[in-house]
Amino acid sequence: MMGKKILAIISLFVAFSTVGGYSAARAADTSPREQSFLLSPKKTYEYYCSPCHGMGGKGDGTFFTIDLKPKPRNFTDVEYMKKRTDDQLVKSITEGSKSVDKSNLCPPWGKTISEKRIKELVTHIRGFSSPVAQQVASVAKEGKVVVEKTSTFKSSLRWGFLAVITIALAGGAVSELKKLKKESL
Predict the structure, then answer these.
(1) Rounded to an integer, what distance in angstroms lies between the CA atom of residue 69 and that of residue 85?
(2) Nearest alpha-carbon partner for 107 in 119, 95, 120
(3) pTM (predicted TM-score)
(4) CA 99 from centroid of its chain's CA atoms
(5) Residue 42: other Cβ atoms inside 10 A
(6) Could you read off the pLDDT of 73-96 as tens digits, one per residue?
């Protein structure tokens, strides 16, 4: 009876370890920079674009203060953003803004950021000039905090793994306790 329980515990442990190992291996396929700065279009924007364009896309980033000429583009300018096509934005990110007859200060990111992520960046940048973005900006000024959810699958996987380890350790402790009890008689 006890042997079947231990076998079940070991089977669960192996199953969770396999899934956990697979998840860890997939994470290892990307560089540390991709893991932290390329997790989402927002994170990519914050790392590569916000130093000049600002966190809110207003053209007021850290480097704005050193009198860049021309000034970084304000992505919240609805009228200007309506005039720019997605292809123009993709080209300016991929080949640098000079490729679309804009400033030569914005570097080409095409060899650094994937084509898919650049297209996602365009969507993110367009979001700065949307009515919803304007509402979010006004809410942020009021001091409300938006909490991002973590992946429930990853969280469940971690808790499941901890539960299996705990059960395995408890099973081993019970087994050892029974051995000691038999030896003392």
Answers:
(1) 24
(2) 95
(3) 0.54
(4) 29
(5) 15
(6) 889 999 989 998 999 999 999 998
